[in-house]
Design a protein that fits this description.
Blueprint: E1 6-7, H1 8-16, H2 18-26, H3 34-46, E2 53-56, E3 60-64, E4 66-70, E5 73-80, H4 88-103, E6 111-116, E7 121-126, H5 129-146, H6 167-170, H7 172-176
Parallel strand pairs: 1-3, 5-6
Antiparallel strand pairs: 2-3, 4-5, 6-7
The structure holds iron/sulfur cluster.
């Protein structure tokens, strides 16, 4: 069994697009575009100064943007640059943070919040069986891609490619022809 710790933020990447995960994490081609730089700035602002809130389980680890207290329980908040929607990759990332907090014994809460900066709206995400299953699938996918020797296919949703930081290395338009 591979016991390497996987970064929670990359769970988001692999769910968003396995090809992007391969380019960034297996080939090491991690370009910084305007969207990532803006995202980094937002995270730096939202994390309290000098406070990196690490969470981990037996397979994954990462940093939570903020912890809040609700009904006597610690609840993670993950800040995102865009707008509220059906962003499954964000749900998996936040769900993994909730899972870690629970496994660490830091909370009994089974939910967290995504806060979307552009629309200033908050979305409550429950760590239910379906989301737990999605996290497991994403972890397995990361391990599989780490051992792959060829690129995963381009995403079937070309809209994802518009702001993608590894678009140059990926050449999605070429591959779709
Ligand atoms: S450009 Fe599109 S297909 Fe290529 S890695 Fe980015 S999201 Fe995936």
């Amino acid at each position: 069994m591979d016991d390497t710790y996987l970064p929670i933020s990359k769970l988001n990447t692999v769910v968003f697009c396995p090809r992007r995960y391969f380019i960034e994490s297996v080939l090491g081609d991690e370009e910084r575009n305007i969207h990532l730089i803006e995202g980094d700035t937002l995270h730096a602002r939202t994390r309290r100064e000098g406070e990196n809130i690490w969470v981990w389980s037996d397979r994954i680890c990462g940093i939570v943007d903020q912890m809040i207290q609700e009904a006597g329980q610690t609840v993670p908040v993950e800040f995102k640059k865009g707008w509220l929607g059906e962003h499954v990759s964000d749900w998996v990332q936040l769900g993994a943070e909730v899972l870690c907090l629970r496994e660490m014994g830091r909370t009994q809460a089974s939910y967290g919040y995504l806060y979307y900066h552009t629309t200033r709206r908050r979305q409550r995400i429950e760590l239910d069986d379906e989301l737990t299953c999605s996290i497991e699938t994403a972890v397995a996918e990361m391990r599989r891609i780490a051992g792959a020797d060829s690129y995963p296919p381009v995403t079937e949703k070309p809209s994802k490619c518009r702001g993608c930081s590894v678009r140059e290395a990926c050449q999605p338009t070429l591959w779709r022809k």
